[in-house]
Amino acid sequence: MHLAQATTREEVLILAHWFHVRHRTSSLRLMKEHDRSPKAIVEFPNRGRYDLENSCHGLLCFVKCGKEEEALVSNPLRGELLMLPESTVMSRWPHLDRYGLGFDSSIKKYKIVHVFFRDFDWAKRGYRLGAEVYTVGATSSWREISQIPCYPLYKRAVYASGALHWLVNCEFNPDNLKSMVISFNIKEEEFNSIPHQEFPSKVSKWFELVDLRGYLGMVDFSLGTHIEIWKLKDYEKKEWVREYRIDIKPPHGVPINEYIEVVGLMEDGEILLERYKKLVAYNPKTNGLRCIQTLNNDPDMDTPQVYVYTGSLVSISGAIKS
Q: What is the model's pLDDT at position 196?
């Protein structure tokens, strides 16, 4: 019941993921408007930088960067961390691997999928992919699956409508690419492409997937005069609608909006943007912008990664026991 109502009644929070360059420590902090010193609510257990892969039902999936990958799941509001078992495979290009966390409603279990490179030849752009799945609370190790995506994946995943979604990695885009979005059905454990409308560009680095309060959103940064956000309104029929147009022009000399990130949709309908180390809220009704926060300028701290986060009562320990 809580999960079903979470996207409509839970408070939307802003989380910042901070990395201390000198100490090489990571933490999650709850941000409030104009609060210059947000307090840490989760400290990561080991030294090194962790990257967010995606969120699902208030749980966050992180992967530690570097040669030795380390994946974990966290519920920051409960201060919980779950270290995932070590992968059973050897990836040939770990920093291009992708993880995703989703919920299988048929067995009421959380699953994490890991897409990796079995073989890789950068000079020839040749590769062979593999995939493995870990089911929280059901097994003690990863298991390989026969299903693999047709192309390498790009950027963070978005969980919506029982599936994970990624962009196709533009470094491997074939000339005949029809869709830039790949999905993974959590229940069926199958990869598919998601059809979408035609865009002026097919270079996926000018696009971004975003969670629009339970709907899959696709952001088009390729336009020189504005940003468009499309929403997959009907998942079964694959019907997209243009939900927002944000008239923010890139600075002089920059042909494209490459320095803006759409963080997510706020509780009051505003869209949170990150622009030049500033958090900005865009109001679609008034077409106005307001600055929420200037991000960290401390030389010992890397610029924080910011997420829109819907709090949850889900317990990781409860998910393991259920």
A: 92
